[in-house]
TrEMBL record:
Top-level enzyme category: oxidoreductase
This protein's record includes keyword Oxidoreductase: yes
The protein, known as: 3-hydroxybutyryl-CoA dehydrogenase
Family, as annotated: Belongs to the 3-hydroxyacyl-CoA dehydrogenase family.
Enzyme nomenclature, EC number: 1.1.1.157
Species annotation: Aliiroseovarius salicola
Domain 3-hydroxyacyl-CoA dehydrogenase NAD binding as annotated: residue spans: 6-183
Parts of the chain that traverse the membrane: none
UniProt keyword list: Oxidoreductase
Location of the 3-hydroxyacyl-CoA dehydrogenase C-terminal domain: 187-282
GO molecular function term, any single one: 3-hydroxybutyryl-CoA dehydrogenase activity
InterPro entries: 3-OHacyl-CoA_DH (IPR022694), 3-OHacyl-CoA_DH_CS (IPR006180), 3-OHacyl-CoA_DH_NAD-bd (IPR006176), 3HC_DH_C (IPR006108), 6-PGluconate_DH-like_C_sf (IPR008927), 6PGD_dom2 (IPR013328), NAD(P)-bd_dom_sf (IPR036291)
Length: 283
């Protein structure tokens, strides 16, 4: 089916980036969050990030105005029901996602495709609790969404070919590249990336190197744009730990055990940039 309008649930770091790329690619966007503060902050971020694109000559002021006018915000989940595609980008807690999908159900159009931006939860399990497992997929964007070229497409066991093809076309329209991943814990990117960050935590925990030397080693020695501890702070150490737990529980292999130092930082509330403190101090 042809997709023209998109509902985005959750106006956080991922949600505002997703709204940004869809609006600048010509889609009508309805952005939903329970918090007015989050919605206002998200629009502010999109305004700022698109202004930067104009300043760099990557977009005209006219195109920016048109993109911003395509984003509407709402507290009402029901207002997303008429869109062609819904992307859930709320908190990474399964009970929250289940509640959102249940809340959406009464107003959803028969053909609307439902997706989740989950970074690790089972798509098959999320889909099975909705009325449309055939029109449900994992649609995983990377942070920062306007910059990162990849989108992971994860089919649940019941996802139809038609749903997959529709989302593949959407990814092309966004100017991004799709990678298909099977529905196993943490898919591809996080299956490889998060254990690397966890291993960097072990290197720090065991005294192999300091925060500065571990990050410098991977930046200069492996050409990564950010060191693994800096990247952990950027993603959120709580998110990294949640993904390690999904890998550990789902694959039952001790190689995925979360580093005790990572657990301690999360217990302290030192979860990275968003908290002002993680492996680095952002105050
Ligand atoms: N929103 C929009 N644009 C942004 C941005 C943001 N939050 N942050 C940076 N940018 C843009 C800048 O405008 C700039 O654009 P141009 O090159 O066109 O001028 C570009 O990104 C580079 O930014 P900077 O020069 O300010 O900074 P940088 O060179 O240090 O790059 C970075 C910043 C792009 C974040 C880079 O450090 C990077 O690629 N880091 C790794 C990011 C990464 O690995 N992300 C994946 C995380 S895993 C994930 O998302 C999956 C999950 O489920 C956990």
């Amino acid at each position: 089916m042809s997709i023209q309008s998109v509902g985005v649930i959750g106006a956080g770091q991922m949600g505002n980036g997703i709204a940004h790329v869809f609006a600048t690619s010509g889609y009508d966007v309805v952005l939903n969050d329970v918090s007015q503060e989050a919605l206002s902050a998200a629009i502010g971020r999109v305004e700022k990030n698109t202004a930067r694109q104009v300043a760099k000559g990557a977009m005209t002021e006219e195109a920016r105005g048109a993109a911003l006018a395509r984003i509407r915000t709402t507290h009402e989940l029901g207002e997303l029901g008429g869109t062609d595609l819904v992307i859930e980008a709320a908190t990474e807690r399964e009970e929250v996602k289940d509640q959102i999908f249940a809340g959406l159900a009464p107003s959803l159009g028969a053909d609307t495709i439902l997706t989740s931006n989950t970074s690790s939860l089972s798509i098959t399990r999320l889909a099975a609790k909705t009325d449309r497992p055939d029109r449900f997929m994992g649609f995983h964007f990377m942070n920062p969404v306007p910059v990162m070229k990849l989108v992971e497409l994860i089919r649940g066991i019941a996802t139809s070919d038609e749903t997959y093809q529709s989302l593949l076309s959407v990814v092309e329209n966004l100017g991004k590249t799709a990678a298909s991943a099977e529905d196993y814990p943490a898919f591809i990117v996080n299956r490889v990336l998060i254990p690397m960050i966890n291993e960097a935590c072990y290197a720090l925990y065991e005294g192999v190197g300091s925060v500065a030397s571990i990050d410098a080693s991977m930046k200069l020695g492996a050409n990564h744009p950010m060191g693994p501890l800096e990247l952990g702070d950027f993603i959120g150490l709580d998110t990294c730990l949640a993904i390690m737990n999904v890998l550990h529980d789902g694959l039952a292999d001790t190689k995925y055990r979360p580093c005790p130092l990572l657990v301690k930082y999360v217990e302290a509330g030192w979860v990275g940039r968003k908290a002002g403190r993680g492996f680095y101090d952002y105050h």
